[in-house]
Each structure stands twice: as C-alpha cells, then as structure tokens.
Amino acid sequence: MADLQAQADDLEEKRRALQRHAERAERERDLAAEQCEDAEADARRARAEAAPAVERFMEAEVLRNQLQASGDEVLRLKAEIAVCRGEVARGWPSVEAAEEAEAECREAVAEVESAHAREAARLQAAHDEELSELGATHAEALSELKAAKEEEVSSLQVAGAEELRSLRA
C-alpha cells in the first residue's frame, strides 16, 4: 500500500511538473505570437513610411518622361531649322522670313535646351536625395529588424536554457 501511495505521489508530482511545463510552453507560445504580431506591425509601419518615397520616385519618373519629351521636341525643332535653311537656300519663302523663322527656332531650341539642362539637373539632384533617404531608411529599418531578431533569439535562448535547467532539476 505504501508503494502504491509512493507511486501515486510520484505520478502526481510528475503530472504537476508536466502541467507547469505545458503552461510555461503556452506562455512562451503566446509571447512569440505577440512578438510576431509586433514584427508584422513594424513591417506595416515601414511600408507606410516608405510609401511617400515611392510616390516621390513615381513623380520623378513622370518628370523624367516629360524631360524626354522635351528632348524629342529639341530634335524636332533642330530638324525644322534644317528644313528652313533648305528653304532659304532655294529662296522659298523669302530669305528675310526664313531668317526670322530660323532666329525664332534657335531661340526656342536654346530655351528648350536650357530648360532641359535645368530639369535634368533638378531631377538628378532629387533622385540622388531620394536615393540617399531611401538608403538611410532601409539601413535603419534593417538595423532595427536585426536588433529585434537578435533580442528575440537571445530571449528564446535564455528561456530554453531555463527550461532545460528546470527539466534537469
């Protein structure tokens, strides 16, 4: 009878230990799930923070396309100047009118080329600034994620070590 009582006590003690272990595992699971949710929230925040930069990049692409269109216009105007010079050489229309048209075309080409150069410089500066900002934001977010991962791994290692000690004890 005493042996049965001792076995019953031993089994009860094992049951309690296993129950504590199960409760601890559930708490750790809940903590890990919470940390996962936090990481997902951080990722959503990072995407939301990056959205304005992406929008600026898209605007820069639109401006770059406009700049390309301006470059095409410059080429068209240069071709028109060549046609005007041909007309002047043939004397049709009058030389004076052709010279005026040529001067206007040259002015228009100069203005478009000047605007083109200014726009290219502005777009390049905006692109460089945006690229720098995105790089810094990316590096910061990556650093934060690495730190969070290292912290989580460390806490899980500590918890695992504690659990091993408790199981060995």
UniProtKB/TrEMBL annotation:
For region Disordered, the annotated ranges are 1-32
Q: Where does the record place Basic and acidic residues bias?
A: 12-32
User: Protein name, please?
Assistant: Uncharacterized protein
Species for this entry: Zooxanthella nutricula
